[in-house]
Write the structure tokens for this entry.
Amino acid sequence: MPTMPKLFAAVLLAVLGYFAADRIGGHLPPETQQGMLRPMSVIFGIFIGWRFLGRRVGRGFNSGIGMGLSAGIALVLVGLFYFAGVEMLRRAMRMAYGGNPFEALQDMIQIAFGYTIYLANADVLAVLIGGSIGVGLVVEAVAKRWS
């Protein structure tokens, strides 16, 4: 059922996803194509905000901080999984794995760990951590206001 906390969580986490992707894009190598980085981060933010964060608020501001951080971590993990999967499929289409699906899945995990280098910058971490806490607090305040 649509509620105001779900709406705010979806919108705010989508905005957080956009700004985090923008910060990450600044650290990627110049030859990297960033076509779907921002739009997919926004889509993941909408989904996680609506289905994950929006359902779990209303338990106090300490819980709101924790849920905001959890939603931020979920956003990062879903993004890492998706973009590593896309890269793995791109390599599989070039027959890099010789038809071995387990090698492809192992490489996908290695690709995801390789992408964490771009997350380990101060400005990216500040946006993700600060934004997640802020989103959690705002959504908690909205839940208190419209409950």
About this structure: The two ends are 14 Å apart (CA to CA). The chain is about 80% helix and 0% strand. Helices lie at 4-25, 37-53, 61-93, 101-119, 122-145.
